[in-house]
Each structure stands twice: as structure tokens, then as C-alpha cells.
Amino acid sequence: MRAMRSACLLSTALLLSACATSHILTGTPRAPIDPAQVRIYHGPPPGGYEEIAVLRTASGAFTYGEQNKTDAVLRKLRDEAASLGANGVLLQGIAADGGGGGGVSVGAGGGRFGGRGFSSAGVGVNVSPSQQYGSGVAIWVANPPPVQPQPQPQPAR
């Protein structure tokens, strides 16, 4: 019983650590801010920035759909940057793990024991999706550029 409990606790810890975002401090963290204030930069922002930390994260083991995986990675990078007081993330990249993403297996067997025959069959299905991984640099931008409003699509006539 005690071994089973230990195995369950270890499994839970491993599962939770697989979804964690990590950082390596390269500068001085600031007071935490709201993640909604963190902007994603695809190149260095004009006017310079202060580097705070290198970030790494994954979409999560049960995230389905490519866009959902990308959104999860960006959300986790923003959350981690905000916890360090960074108001920006200089995105370094997002990539898939290249895993198979699922499969189906079928098996059958039979035999004889004590004058009686038996048979069995089984089907196994793996529906675990591949993950996306992302990395970026948590940064502090003293005077962030204004947010450009997105153009609204015109309805078709």
C-alpha cells in the first residue's frame, strides 16, 4: 500500500513538472505585473531593453490543435515573464516535438491450458498529442511602442 502511494505521488510530480515553465535569471527581476501587460516581440523593440531571464515552456500534454498549442506556449511565456516583472518577451522560437501524435494497435492470442482452450484479443489506442515547445527572453522595455490597432475586416457585399 505504501509503495502504491509513493508511486502515485511520484507520477503526479512528474506529470506536473512536464507542464512547468522554467527560467534562468540573466538580469534583475522586478515586482510581478499582470500578464496582460506583457507583450510578445518577434524582434528587438526599438529603443533597447533590459534582459531579465531566459524562458522555456511546453504547450502541455493534453492540448489539442496547433493553434491551441501555440496559444498555450505564448500564454505560459507571458505568465512567467509577468511573474519576473518583465513587460515583454523576445520570442526566440516555437517548435513541435516531432512525436507521432497517436496510433492504433491490435493484438490477438490464444492457447491451451489443462485441456481447455482460450483466446483473447485487444485493441490499444494512443491519442496523446505531440507538444509544442517555446523559448524566449523576458525583457523590460522602458518605453514600449504603442500597440497598433488591428484592421477590422470589411464585410462582403
Can you give a write-up of this model?
This protein is of the alpha+beta class and 157 residues long. It has a domain at 21-98 and 130-140: Hypothetical protein apc22750. Chain B (Translation Initiation Factor IF3, 2-Layer Sandwich), CATH 3.30.110.70. 22% of the residues lie in helices and 36% in strands. The protein has 2 helices and 7 strands. The chain has helices at residues 2-18, 66-83, and strands at 22-25, 39-41, 50-58, 88-96, 103-113, 116-126, 132-140. Strands 1-3-7-4-2 form a 5-stranded mixed sheet. It has a two-stranded antiparallel ribbon with strand order 5-6. Residues 6-18 have low confidence and may be disordered.
Question: What would the keywords be for this entry?
Answer:
157 residues; alpha+beta; Translation Initiation Factor IF3; five-stranded mixed β-sheet; two-stranded antiparallel sheet; 36% strand; elongated
CATH level 1 class label of the domain at 21-98 and 130-140: Alpha Beta
Query: What is the CATH architecture annotation of the domain at 21-98 and 130-140?
Result: 2-Layer Sandwich
Q: Which structural category fits the helices and strands?
A: alpha+beta
If you compute it from the alpha carbons, what radius of gyration comes out, rounded to the nearest whole angstrom?
A: 24 Å
Residue fraction in strands: 35-45%
Biggest sheet overview: 5 strands, mixed
